[in-house]
Design goal:
With 375 residues, the chain is α+β, with helices and mostly antiparallel strands. The protein is built from 6 helices and 15 strands. Helix 3 runs antiparallel to helix 4.
Length: 375
């Protein structure tokens, strides 16, 4: 009896649970409250776009010229620096050691040139002059001996062999005198011009090597390219700084006086945009915080949309025209990279709001199309 009642009871309970689950699941999902009120356009007819705040100089990704260890980072996030101020220093100890060697070589080459220019040494001249005087005396003595033997009236008193020996000795003394005089002239002339030119060239080479090392060491101090602010700092002392293009820049740098906002205008609304039109931007999360915008320039190349706002109706295959405006930050609580809602006054989409010539042409095309349809 109990077993016969158990199965129907279980079936009834299961049916009730199923009905409860279906009823509960079919209830509409409550819509969550908006974090903030949407921005209200200040114009009757307008072009709207999402804008991203950026530095007036664009956000510059500062990199490292060489892959080296970072020794010092004298700046902090938010630091305002002048053009040429150091942002971070790389390890340059090996280059400084090589620079000291090159500088010593340069000094040595300069000393060698000074030594050549200073020739002759005062101590070298007197000894060579004495050799010349000695050679002149020896030559004069030999010539006198030859003359005495040649002046003898009786040729038989002087042997021909002895006279010949004296004559050859006199010729040898003449050669020694000429050599001594040449040595004296060479010393007095100083260094050879070509030797001085070669020494000067070696100094120039050594100086260029020193300058090259100075330049290489200077490159290891990465400096600010212009007046600006450190927007992001991703490098610390002791870290290794790789060179080349990085996914995460070592430093993001830019000029934020004034700020720029880059607005993406849908290509379907691009024809309605007018550079001279008034434009207003409000901060995401607080539409009451608004600021007027000053037109800067248009990038005339229409690109696929890259800055996504998270709107569920947003399409990633949209192409946009990028327009850049500027505004003064002052006390405006906004930062680089933040999004803004931008409204630009523009003509309406209606046919009558088109330029007169274009509107008339469109009407003619529509009328012609209707006549073709009736035929």
């Amino acid at each position: 009896m109990t077993r016969n009642l158990l199965f129907p009871l279980v079936a009834v309970l299961g049916l009730g649970f199923a009905i409860y689950t279906i009823t509960t699941g079919s209830r509409p999902v409550p819509v969550g409250e908006a974090v903030s009120d949407p921005a209200v356009p200040p114009f009757e007819s307008y072009v709207a776009g999402a804008g991203v705040v950026e530095a007036a100089s664009r956000n510059v990704a500062i990199g490292s010229p060489l892959a080296r260890l970072v020794l010092e980072v004298p700046v902090k996030v938010g630091s305002a620096v002048k053009a040429g101020d150091p942002l971070f220093h790389l390890d340059d100890r090996d280059l400084k050691a090589e620079l000291a060697t090159r500088q010593a070589t340069l000094e040595l080459e300069k000393e060698r040139l000074d030594r050549l220019v200073a020739l002759p040494r005062p101590e070298d001249v007197p000894s060579l002059e004495a050799r010349v005087v000695e050679a002149e005396a020896v030559l004069a003595d030999l010539r006198n001996q030859v003359a005495l033997r040649e002046s003898v009236s009786d040729p038989r008193s002087v042997s021909l062999e002895e006279l010949t020996i004296k004559r050859f000795a006199a010729h040898a003394a003449e050669a020694k005198l000429a050599d001594a005089r040449a040595q004296l002239a060479l010393i007095k002339a100083g260094a050879w011009k070509k030797d001085i030119e070669v020494a000067s060239g070696e100094i120039k080479v050594a100086d260029r090597q020193v300058q090259a090392l100075d330049t290489e060491i200077e490159r290891l101090t990465v400096r600010a390219p212009f007046d600006g602010t450190v927007l992001q700092l991703n490098v610390r002392p002791g870290e290794f700084a790789p060179s080349g293009t990085l996914e995460t820049p070592l430093i993001v740098f830019g000029s934020i006086q004034p700020f720029h906002v880059r607005v993406d205008i849908d290509e379907n609304d691009a024809w309605r945009f007018r550079p001279e039109a008034a434009a207003v931007a409000s901060i995401r999360g607080n539409p009451e915080l608004k600021t007027s915008l000053t037109f800067e320039y248009v990038e005339p190349l229409v690109l696929p949309k890259r800055s996504l706002t998270g709107d569920p109706t947003e399409r990633v295959d949209t192409r946009v025209l990028q327009v850049v405006y500027s505004f003064k930050r002052k006390e405006f609580p906004i930062y680089a990279g933040q999004q803004m809602d931008v409204f630009i006054e523009a003509p309406s989409r209606s046919l009558h709001s088109s330029p007169p010539g274009k509107a008339a042409l469109l009407r003619k095309e529509v009328d012609a199309f209707k006549e073709d349809g009736q035929r």
